[in-house]
Structures are given as C-alpha cells and as structure tokens.
Write a structure and sequence with these properties.
Elements (H helix, E strand, L loop, with lengths): L1 H9 L3 H7 L13 H8 L6 E8 L10 H18 L9 E4 L9 H14 L5 E4 L10 H9 L5 E5 L2 E6 L10 H17 L5 E7 L16 H8 L5 E6 L11 E3 L3 E4 L26 E8 L4 E7 L4 E2 L15 E3 L14 H4 L12 E3 L5 E7 L7 E10 L2 E12 L10 E7 L6 E10 L8 E6 L3
Parallel strand pairs: 1-2, 2-3, 5-6, 6-7, 7-9
Antiparallel strand pairs: 1-10, 4-5, 8-9, 10-11, 11-12, 11-13, 14-15, 15-18, 16-17, 16-19, 19-20
Helix pairs in contact: 4-5, 5-6
Amino acid sequence: MLLRRIMGILCIPVAVFTLVSGVSFISKDKQMSLDEKIAKETQEDFTPVFRFAVASDVHISVSDNTNAERLAKLFETAYNYSDNHASYNSLDALVLCGDNCDRGEDAEYEILNRVIKENIREDTEFISVMGNHEFAATGLDGYERNMGEDRDKHVVVKGFHFIGMSPNPTDTWHTPDQLFWLAKELRKAEKDAPDKPIFTMQHGHIWNTVYVSRSWYTQMSLFVHMVYSQYPQVVNFSGHSHGPVNNPINIWQNNYTQLGAGTLNYFEMERDIGDETVPEGSRNAAQYLIVEVDAQNRVRIQPFNILTGEFFKTPANNDSEDKQLIWQIDDVFDTSNYAYTSSRKKTASAPRFDKEASVSVSSVSENSAQITFPQAEDDVCVYGYRITVSEKSNPKKAVLTKEIYSGYYFEPMPETLSWTAEGLTCGADYTVSVVPLNVWLQAGDPIAADFTAGA
C-alpha cells in the first residue's frame, strides 16, 4: 500500500517500477568496446564552461584536526587547478554530500565554517546536505542553525541546477514528502534547463550501483532510484560508504549517472573479499571529484588525490604511469551510449601475472611463513588476491585461505604484497597459490610455490 501511494504521488510509471523491482539494478544498455571508451575519455577538444568540486564524508572532528586540514587542502588544490587552466579559470561551486561533521556538535560546525570562510572565494557557491553522523549531537536543528540553510535545497549556479536531499534522523531514511519534493524540483529543473545535466546529491548511495553501495546505501534506494530514473540527465553524487574514489565502478550508469564522492576520512571496502572491510593504512584517504561541463553539455569527471596533490592516475596498472583517470559523458540524455554500465564486466579480461612472476616464501618457522608476491596486471584494475595454503599431497584441500586488497587506492600502488600464514604444522609440506582478482571478482591464473613448515 505504501509503495503504491508513493508511486502515485511521484507519478512513477509502472514500467519504471518493473525495471527496479528485481534483485538488482542491472543495465541492458549497449556496451561500448574498451577502445571506444578510452577514446571518449581522452578527447582533447573539451573546453569547460562550468566547474565544481564535490566531496563527501569530511568528518570534521574537535579531537583531530587532520580532516579540517584536508578540507582546506581541497579548496587549495581545486582553486590551483582552476586558476591554471588554459581556458576556464573559475570554480563555480563546491558540494559536500554529508557527514561533513563527525557528530554534528556545534564546535565541529564552528571548525567547518571557519575552514570554509578562510578558503572559499566570493564567486564559488557552497552547497551541502547532511549525513547520518550530524544527527548524533545537534541533528537537523544544529545543521540548519550552524549552516544557515535548509536541509533540502535547490540551487541554480550559472544556469546549472543542483538539488540536494538530506536524510532524516533514522540513519539514511528519506520521507515520502521528501520524495515528492525531489520529483517536483526535478521537473522544475528540466523545464528551466531542458538541454543541461541536473546535478543531484544525497548522503547514501543508491543500492547496488557504485562501489560499496551494496553495503552502505540510503534506506530509500528503491524509491529514490525510481525518481531519478525518469531523468537521464541526472548526475547524482553520494557518499556514506568511504569507498575509494578511483575504483572503476565508482561511476555507474543505467537510466541516469551515479558517482561516489569519496572521503577525507578513511577508506572502507565492499564486503566481497576477506573478512576485513577497512584495509591497513585506511586513514591515507583524502580525495574528491572535479566536475566540468562544456558548451555542448558534455560532462567530465576527474578524481583528485589530495595526499599526492595530483589527479588520480588510471588504476589499470599496465597503462602509462602518467595516464590520468577521467570519466566523460558525451550525452547525458543518450542512455544507449552510456559507457559505464554494469555490463562492463562482460568485456573485462581477467588479471594476469607476468610470466616471470613467482611467490616467495620466507621467515619460515615451525608454524608460520611469510608469503610475498608481485602485483598482477589488469586492463581495468587489480582489486585483490586470494591466497590458499594447501597440503602438498592434496592441493585441493585448503588449510588456510586469505583474501587481501591490492592497494590500488594508494599512489604509488605497492609493487609487492605480503601475508603471514599462521597455524601450520611443523614438518608438513605445503603449496601456496595466489590468484589475482579484478574489480568484478573475475579470477586470473595463479602463481604457486612449495615449502615445508619448520624447514
């Protein structure tokens, strides 16, 4: 009954409901070849006429000034890029997608507003929405009082529409009234600027879209997705997950475009390999997106790494080390030519080790050994590795299994990885096998080595 009521309020066609009511939102749009996508991403005739920066999960804290310093660095790097651009020197807006403060305390807002005031320029529009963390202390009242703005907003900057929706106190929930408001504001934006992209944001991802959205997402994903699905020109930004911004599936397209806006706080991964979602060194995370639009309303997104002071390089580690990671949408309205759909995995190759690659076993004791191996190569991104220690006499019987991340989210990416196998039997003979995985968990051929515990 509630579903039918919301569909009626939002004027959502049955066909749209049918599309999204299944297990997952998987596009069946035409898939481009890798060469076509690369050509689209590296066009040199892109001259911006509009630019903004977008980030999420800043988590300003009173006890640790690190994230405030990273936010100040965001302003500095975004302005430096804009000031030195060959043809367009303006940063027209800066967008934050929630969890801007760690608890929503007044003292945290004071720090946030100080960083903004000290760094923002008069010609840059500041736009933000709340996250779930701001509700821990002062909640909605604290946000509106400290930020001087409503929780939900529709802002027009140089003819481009920005529509932001904050959550309610129940984690990442959005009410039916908010969904009605969102649908109404989208209709206004389309009527006012029918040929332009519409930029939207909320804190939680839409479920099963971008990386880590299967673990962290808005509780109203189905309904928010149904609203956005009526507007292919929507380019939506969200956070909440802390997923690495340079993951190839940090951009997703079906009936609209969805992107994760990164974090200035710490990395968290999808629950798809291993049992740890927060990797070692996760605090080395400070990233955001530079988004540009040209006169033909093409959209270009460039992930930026604050810790290196440079744009992210492509995570395909067999590319040129200087090749920048760029996502480009040549026509937001043409869903048939979306390049970043879920079907990318159908054309992806499995990762592969160099023919000379080998596993090294060292520091062998009676019940442990250190396993070391080089990174594999992948045309898109090496995501992680599955390490299996088996009895040599029975390779199919696993004694130990461990899955680890590749560290693709660090720059430079580590050249080798190590893991210590523990709980071995002294004198027993073992085979260790290492299998590389890409971002779609497609497995490549393994490399292996034999060793004896206690030897």
